[in-house]
Amino acid sequence: MMKILIVDDDENLRETIKYNLINAQYSVVLAETGTQAIEVARREKPDLIILDIMLPGLDGFEVCRILRNEMSIPILILSAKTDEIDKIVGLELGADDYITKPFSIKELMARIRAMLRRRQLTEQQALSNKSEDTKLPRILQGHGLEVDTARHQVFLKGSVLNLTPKEFELLSFLMRYKEQVFSREQIMEKIWGYNFDNSKRTVDVHIRWLRQKIEDNPENPKILITVIGFGYKFEP
Predict the structure, then answer these.
(1) 164-192 burial, b if ≥16 CB within 10 A, otherwise e?
(2) Could you report the per-residue pLDDT of 148-157, keeping only the tens digit for each?
(3) Fewest CB within a 10 Å sphere: which of 6, 50, 78, 83?
């Protein structure tokens, strides 16, 4: 049974999410503050964390930063904040996804299932090494980038490049299929495992931050190219 940690100081919301998760056959643990969240995560080692931003004491951003440095558990951020900068901060600190309040339980559950499914697939692929991607080169190269897909290491002109897990997946995916254009919908399905109309900006955010890290001039990208009306591609 998959275990999910819910971190939110709103008791009604916390109990609503708990009720739906238990009905879906998940095990649930709870925390109300940032400090509790870190303690429970370390003790219980959940399979996924649902993390509110506005928490007493340590806020969700700080909790995300601390836990991401310690473990690779998928983190789904909940927030009443709608500003794009808050979303960007959450993703840059290592969150895997971000959903703003109010949200539908149906969408929340779909995202949870997708995140857990992707984690299971990643673990299975790591153990069996029999995914379809093993037919492709382990080392991907281009524009001074070298991506080791087995060791999850990225180098830019010989220097180590630190990427978040989703940035790594996105860059590896686009490099594997050089020159092929992928829509936001296709990228969402491939990297995040689901596709909602109000989530496609997640792709744009990750592309923007990747450009900040790999492009000489992010405002005039030469590597990750926008194909107007279609999507994105890696330019070989």
Answers:
(1) bbbbbbbbbbbbeeeeebbbbebbbebbb
(2) 988 889 999 9
(3) 83
